[in-house]
Design brief:
The protein has 266 residues and is an alpha/beta fold. It is built from eight helices and eleven strands. It has helices spanning 59-63, 67-86, 92-103, 118-126, 139-147, 187-197, 215-224, 234-242; strands spanning 22-23, 27-29, 36-41, 44-46, 109-112, 132-136, 156-160, 173-179, 198-209, 246-254, 257-264. Strands 1-2-3-4-7-6-5-8-9-11-10 form an eleven-stranded mixed β-sheet, sandwiched between helices. The chain is globular and about 55 Å long. The chain starts with 21 loop residues before the first strand and ends with a strand. The model has no long low-confidence stretch (mean pLDDT 94).
């Protein structure tokens, strides 16, 4: 039954702002305005297609909507990406251990830009009963994430939505994780929404590419900016976080890659 998977008490209507929605066999709906959000699968709810208009995608974002990306991202790139980007051995086990350290025992957790659910699975393998919501705007990657769900994860749901308009209640989450996606998102609106949905003392954990100011890395990033990717320095990201009420507690740099842990200071 779909009822067992979706934490509808955490969901928020994108039309009227009602917090706490209802669920039937094939839909989630707002008890206030009646807006329907269809279930694409018992684990996946679509908050995006019912909206009258959505922002245009950048070339980098559009890539994530292609069948090739949906098939190849995790099979060909993600498990080895940190070793390639940092220039040192950075195993999946090391990444999972660091992620768990930064997130702690938080629940519920939002995996924003979840793609195939790579970080979600790292957390669920450690805490199978964790309430975890994976959000992405690309249908193909959500279906790939669906295929990797294990039966011992009863509180794991997938949501199609935008980072700048999250269908989640205010002050509803203890942690938001963003793995390898922050460079693709509109930073200000994204962080504003993250701060809104986090509880006081809730944490944001992100892994992203830092800005490089010299050498071949600088020129590579300049070229990648044409696709819509953005890169920011430690000071720029810290200032952006502080602007929405998030205080960076830890900033871990591994070459071009950085992990951050920021806490809500409401």
């Amino acid at each position: 039954m779909a009822v067992s998977f979706h934490p509808v008490h955490l969901y928020r209507c994108l039309v009227c702002g009602q917090e706490g929605l209802n669920i039937t066999e094939d839909r989630i709906y707002c008890p206030q305005c009646g807006q329907i959000y269809p279930l694409m699968h018992e684990r996946i709810v679509d908050f995006l297609s019912p909206l009258p208009a959505t922002p245009a995608l950048s070339p980098a974002q559009s890539l994530a909507h292609t069948p090739l990306f949906a098939w190849g991202y995790e099979r060909l790139w993600r498990p080895w990406s940190l070793s390639l980007l940092t220039g040192e051995s950075f195993s999946t086990e090391e990444e999972a251990s660091l992620l768990r350290e930064l997130v702690g025992e938080a629940s519920p957790v939002l995996d924003l830009g979840t793609a195939h659910g790579y970080w979600s699975r790292m957390l669920l393998n450690q805490q199978p009963e964790l309430t975890l919501i994976g959000v992405d705007n690309a249908v193909g990657v959500l279906r790939e994430a669906l295929h990797q769900i294990q039966p011992q994860w009863p509180h794991y749901s997938l949501v199609r939505a935008q980072a700048e308009q999250l269908p989640l209640a205010t002050n509803s989450l203890q942690a938001v994780v963003i793995g390898a996606t922050l460079n693709e998102l509109p930073l200000g609106p994204c962080l504003q929404e993250v701060a809104r949905v986090l509880q006081p003392q809730g944490v944001l954990v992100s892994m992203h590419s830092q800005r490089v100011d010299e050498g071949w890395g600088h020129w590579a990033q300049q070229a990648l900016k044409l696709s819509g990717l953005q890169f920011f320095s430690r000071d720029e990201l810290t200032a952006a976080c502080e602007g929405v009420g998030l205080q960076v507690q830890r900033y871990l740099s591994y070459g071009v890659v950085a992990f951050i842990q920021a806490e809500v200071v409401k």
